Amino acid sequence: NLYGNIFAAIGSVNETDTGSEESFAFGPTAVVKASQVFYRTAHTIAFVNHRPILAGHVLVSSIRAAKRLQELNEEEIRDLFCTVQKVQKAVESEFGANASTIAIQDGVDAGQSIEHIHAHVIPRKPTDFGGNIDQIYSELQKHDKSEHISKTKLRTDEEMLLESTKLKTYF
């Protein structure tokens, strides 16, 4: 089971109350805990990754459960990409990066592992993967796929809370 015991989402998280015990439904089976969320708008939520490829790898998702980008309306698309831009600035600053990989795997055939539209925002440094910076694409291809899950460690709730708390200070 990719995400262990999953419980139904309860309520939602908002910008002014991200410390609550509410959670966010991410795809048909996964739940993002409130402690993972560091930013929220009317249509979009940003949260730390339970299994980051590199330090600072976070996710930005529509709040509405849309599987594909084409299912979002114009307002939701605008909000998603404006949030990606704000989050990119924050994670680059927090993790000392001067570039980012921003990726959307839009559909199963594009490598999407969670059926909920989301963007990966990954701050980048020239030393990533021993200088082989394009390795990010093969890492994204493997990310959260069942055959590779056992090779990467899940972060603890405490680790994710610490990161989300730091990132909240940018908003």
TrEMBL record:
Active-site residue numbers: H118 (tele-amp-histidine intermediate)
Signal peptide bounds: none
Originating organism: Medioppia subpectinata
PROSITE patterns (UniProt xref): HIT_2
Keywords: Hydrolase, Nucleotide-binding
Binding site for substrate: N49, Q105, H120
GO molecular function: bis(5'-adenosyl)-triphosphatase activity; nucleotide binding
This enzyme's EC code(s): 3.6.1.29
Broad class of enzyme this protein falls into: hydrolase
Superkingdom of this protein's organism: Eukaryota
Site (described: Important for induction of apoptosis): Y137
Protein name, per record: bis(5'-adenosyl)-triphosphatase
Pfam annotation, one family: HIT
Catalyzed reactions: P(1),P(3)-bis(5'-adenosyl) triphosphate + H2O = AMP + ADP + 2 H(+)
Short sequence motif Histidine triad motif: positions: 116-120
Domain HIT: 25-131
